[in-house]
């Protein structure tokens, strides 16, 4: 059983350009996220999928420094890029989708979602569509067969840009499992799409990393309990704004 994790990352973000390169305690934000992801016990191979645009040479350089393999493909057709990464670094039985705007990603949490996926036998498992965890801890796991079918059959802009809608919007074709937590923490925003998000993440790293570089979700929650004003730094933004824009493009 081989689990391949593919993390999509590019420099040319529309809302916060160069965010994956932003300084986070002396290293690029993407490097800090990779530092966390390699601690996963369930992921067998970790790949970064970036674009073949010259601007993303910087992403490939970060991967090289972190000793993480990198695949380069289409800038806008992210589903094709994912499928290309799978073909280049597969075969694998299951594929984990991660995004490069989540520097607080928790390897334990990722492993839990993978385990639920394997136990259920589902085609697709996620904690992101019916969210109960903070935005920024999103995990999607799919069978390689589901990814391959999506890559061939998906047509809508939202399906090509966001990789998995072709799968999770068709429960008649794919078995889908939604993983939920006991407590609804979906109001918390730990992703980085806006300058305020980056300011929040920098505060979290500044307070937790020097004491424990391997800090996890519970450590962040304890910090927010003790310093509730931190959550107010970036508490006014819509979740999944980028996907909402892609859905509008579907009707054009």
Walk me through this protein's architecture.
With 252 residues, this protein is of the alpha/beta class. The protein has a single domain (3-250), classed as Spore Coat Polysaccharide Biosynthesis Protein SpsA, Chain A, CATH 3.90.550.10. The chain has helices at residues 29-37, 57-66, 78-89, 107-120, 144-153, 157-161, 165-168, 195-208, 217-226, 241-250; strands spanning 3-8, 23-24, 27-28, 45-51, 69-73, 94-99, 124-126, 140-143, 176-178. The model has no long low-confidence stretch (mean pLDDT 95).
Average predicted local confidence, pLDDT: 95
What is the domain tally? 1
Structural category is alpha/beta
What gross morphology would you assign?
globular
Helix residue percentage: 25-40%
Q: What's the number of helices?
A: 10
Biggest sheet statistics = 7 strands, mixed
Assembly annotation? single chain
At the fourth CATH level, what is the homologous superfamily? Spore Coat Polysaccharide Biosynthesis Protein SpsA, Chain A
Unreliable parts = none
Rg result: 17 Å
Could you give the order of strands across the largest sheet?
5-4-1-6-8-7-9
CATH architecture level-2 label: Alpha-Beta Complex
- Order of helical and strand elements: EEEHEHEHEHEEHHHEHHH
Task: State the end-to-end distance.
Answer: 41 Å
Amount of beta strand: 15-25%
CATH class: Alpha Beta
Total number of beta strands:
9
């Amino acid at each position: 059983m081989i689990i391949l994790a593919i993390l999509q990352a590019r420099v040319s973000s529309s809302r916060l350009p160069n965010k994956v390169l932003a300084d986070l305690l002396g290293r690029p934000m993407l490097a800090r996220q990779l530092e966390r992801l390699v601690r996963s016990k369930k992921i067998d191979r970790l790949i970064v999928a970036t674009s073949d645009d010259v601007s993303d040479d910087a992403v490939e350089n970060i991967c090289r420094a972190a000793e993480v393999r990198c695949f380069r493909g289409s800038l806008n057709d992210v589903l094709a890029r994912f499928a290309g990464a799978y073909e280049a670094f597969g075969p694998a039985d299951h594929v984990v989708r991660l995004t490069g705007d989540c520097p607080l990603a928790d390897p334990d949490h990722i492993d839990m979602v993978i385990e639920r996926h394997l136990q259920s036998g589902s085609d697709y498992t996620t904690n992101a569509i019916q969210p109960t965890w903070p935005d920024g801890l999103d995990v999607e796991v799919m069978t390689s067969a589901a990814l391959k079918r999506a890559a061939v059959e998906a047509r809508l802009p939202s399906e090509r840009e966001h990789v998995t809608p072709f799968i999770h919007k068709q429960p008649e074709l794919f078995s889908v499992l939604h993983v939920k937590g006991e407590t609804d923490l979906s109001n918390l925003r730990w992703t980085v799409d806006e300058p305020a998000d980056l300011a929040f993440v920098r505060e979290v790293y500044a307070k937790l990393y020097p004491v424990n570089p391997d800090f996890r979700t519970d450590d962040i929650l304890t910090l927010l309990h003790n310093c509730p004003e931190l959550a107010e730094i970036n508490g006014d933004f819509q979740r999944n704004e980028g996907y909402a824009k892609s859905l509008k493009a579907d009707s054009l």
